[in-house]
Amino acid sequence: MSRRTHTSRLAAALLLGSVPFAQWVARVAAAQDLRRVDNGTVSATGVFRVAGHLPFVAVCLLDVGKGATAALMIRHLPPGTRAVGAGLVVVGHNWSPFLQGAGGRGVLPALGALAVAHPTGAAVLLGGILGGYARGDTAPGCFLAQTLLTPLLALTGGRRAALFGAAVAAPMLAKRIAGNGTYGRPASARTYWTRAVYDRDRR
Q1: Would you say residue 203 lies in a domain?
Q2: Nearest-10 crossing angle of helices 44-51, 53-73
């Protein structure tokens, strides 16, 4: 496979990740701009808040689907390039050019990509979501799953799996810490820690 083919597939993964399904569904179902709802996250959770269960389920399937599609599209690339492609679908989702750099948290497209390439990683991420939900706050569960993703994949799948896990975990963690541009200037390192664990400025 040529370098041009590699580049085109990586670009396609980024573009696919950038498609803002949550924003489009929220516009159609509730005439809402998710960038102006709550903390500005453009996500399935935001869709649930403004439009209810069915639109939420639709966005979940669409966002998981774009991650899975990207993973299938890049599955024959070399391991390092494949990891980059998986990371790019999450980057596109988190900082979509269609939303002037706004976006989601990358969990659902990462889940889709992992389900295709490394199902153990998908199980880790899903376990974090469900565990957090059971405790009444999915944010700490997602944080724990994202931080454990790379080492657990290294143990179960070796170096290539760990590289893939790191590529999808890094933009998810970065977006949690960076926020959506709607927060004030952070006062201390504690603010960053609170964002990382609880996905907000205040616990």
Answers
A1: no
A2: 160
